[in-house]
């Protein structure tokens, strides 16, 4: 069976940008199960001749007061479904309380987590990645959805967990 990989993180870190870069032109399906999984998008990715299911969580716009609750629901669903979770944050915003919120949920799961820091668009921003070691998920992978950097390395780390 194909492994399932879910991208989890607070809004605006670049989950959908990375999702689209990974699946390329492979068709994504919007699954609409009202009340439960209202905003996940599924696609098929490929890495080194191995294919996998990829879930982009948090695909709809939500109001501010709904954000924290929604992040929790999405993270919990992803934990259930995924074989590996890509926990995404972003170097441009730095570490935020919402990232800590997601980290707390993921920490309690027994699923392997790969921490990816997006928006590392240039070398100067590499130093902004250090603070994310504090999340306790080991060495972060630096990526840039804007430029496509680091995605091969990210998928390598994901497959090491399978
Ligand atoms: P999501 O809410 O986590 O799905 O985030 P999106 O993929 O919708 O991206 C949120 C914003 O960040 C958009 O304006 C993107 O264009 C921008 N973005 C995504 N990846 C990068 C990146 O690597 N660098 C920069 N500078 N911006 C990015
Ligand atoms: Mg999105």
Automatic annotation (TrEMBL):
Binding of GTP 1, residues: 9-16, 56-60, 118-121
GO biological process: ribosome biogenesis
UniProt keyword Metal-binding, yes or no: no
UniProt GO MF annotations: GTP binding; ribosome binding
UniProt KW GTP-binding keyword: yes
Domain annotation EngA-type G: ranges: 3-162
Domain of life: Bacteria
UniProt keyword list: GTP-binding, Nucleotide-binding, Repeat, Ribosome biogenesis
Subunit details: Associates with the 50S ribosomal subunit.
Family: Belongs to the TRAFAC class TrmE-Era-EngA-EngB-Septin-like GTPase superfamily. EngA (Der) GTPase family.
Cited function: GTPase that plays an essential role in the late steps of ribosome biogenesis.
Protein name (database record): GTPase Der
Organism of derivation: Xylanibacillus composti
Covered residues, full protein: 2 to 163 of 439
């Amino acid at each position: 069976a194909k492994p399932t990989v879910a991208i989890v993180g607070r809004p605006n870190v670049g989950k959908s940008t990375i999702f689209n870069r990974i699946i390329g032109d492979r068709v994504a399906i919007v699954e609409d199960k009202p009340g439960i999984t209202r905003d996940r998008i599924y696609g098929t990715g490929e890495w080194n001749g191995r294919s996998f299911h990829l879930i982009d969580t948090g695909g709809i716009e939500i109001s501010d007061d709904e954000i924290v609750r929604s992040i929790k629901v999405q993270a919990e669903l992803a934990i259930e479904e995924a074989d590996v979770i890509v926990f995404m944050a972003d170097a441009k915003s730095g570490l935020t309380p919402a990232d800590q919120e997601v980290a707390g949920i993921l920490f309690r799961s027994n699923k392997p987590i790969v921490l990816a820091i997006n928006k590392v668009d240039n070398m100067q921003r590499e130093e902004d990645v250090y603070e994310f070691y504090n999340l306790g998920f080991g060495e972060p992978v630096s990526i840039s959805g804007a430029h496509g950097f680091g995605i091969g390395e990210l998928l390598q780390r994901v497959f090491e967990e399978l």
